[in-house]
Amino acid sequence: MTSQEIKSLTNQYVMNTYGRFDVVIDHGKGAKLYSPEGKEYIDFTSGIGVCDLGYGDETWAQAVFAQAKQVGHTSNLFYTEPCARLAEKLCKRTGMSNVFFANGGGEANEGMIKLARKYSFDKYGKGRATIIPLKNSFHGRTMATLTATGQDQFHNYFFPFVEGFKFAEANSLDSLKAVAGDDTCAVMMELVQGEGGVLPLDKEYVQAVAKLCAEKDWLLLVDEVQTGVGRTGSLLAFQQYGILPDVCSFAKGIAGGLPMSGIMANEKCKGVLTPGTHATTFGANPVCGAAGLVVQDVLSDEFLAQVREKGEYLRAQIEALCLPCFGKTRGLGLMIGIEMAEGYKNGEIANKLVEAGLLVLTAGPGMRLLPPLVITKEEMDAGIAIMKKTLG
Ligand code: PLP
Q1: Residue 343 burial class via C-beta count within 10 angstroms: exposed 0-12, middle 13-18, buried 19 and up
Q2: Rounded to an integer, what is the distance from CA 375 to the centroid of its chain?
Q3: Is any ligand 1 atom within 6 A of the Cβ of residue 150?
């Protein structure tokens, strides 16, 4: 089919809930994507932080194919090998104790919220179920995670919301203390607020929150849906913050392009969710598990160090362009935010870049870059050259 035919069919038969770019993707290789007519794009988005191995990775594709042939789905009524091995790897590499596998980020965060409330109910009974997320956060589009999302722009139309959430200012321990009370059971945060504009939290603040949570027996819930699986230059971002959360979620990059997510609990919380309290039909899918094992093999400590270096290189190159539309860059690893200069709109700049062959994202009022973790220096330089030519 041609690009035009694919767009027409989509617009007629798929619900119009996404503000799509005028781009049709047919295939990819490394960090490059191509339209059906062969137009080339340098990809600084990786399917919104998902395709950490880029496109067309032979080992990943072979593992997916082999597992799909062997057995594609079984349900959680039976044991299978791939997710057992993946869970072991994730726990051994992070210090967490066990894993629940789900399918998407919002769903994983639902599980995290349920675990926190059950922990508190089991120990303290009713009336201690309030979760404190941060303002400007993003935790998903399901009803509870939408409620936990601290940005009003996402809240229109969908009232009434789930009870039991109160918001604190990011990076303010005083704000957290002022909001917390006898009803508090957990604090929930992204260590780098992604959709909110790529805003890394202060390390001292995060460590102080972890200490306070331990003192009060509130669970510290870390949403690693966007920051996790190597994106920030460590397997999980909390490893760079010197904390061990009670529960964390992960999703996006975990299976390198297949829908998979999950939560991990520490030793204190590993037995909270018991048979019948939480489940999902597609969770722990063996094909996703096999794909996840390939991703884990690639994300060695040496590779993660390269992710940090690449992130620094890309930021330095962007700042060196001194483009009139851009302000400062910020972020962690290959999760990069770019401030907009006064008078420029992120959406307009993104459209110009995409038209010129560089795929980028927006977040909050700025730009956001989430390139495949395997991106090469040549591919980064090609993207920078497009920025210079288009916006210089
Ligand atoms: N949490 C964070 C931090 C996210 O960035 C996202 C999505 O971007 C979500 C949760 C929701 O994930 P999903 O879209 O897979 O449900």
Answers
A1: exposed
A2: 18
A3: no
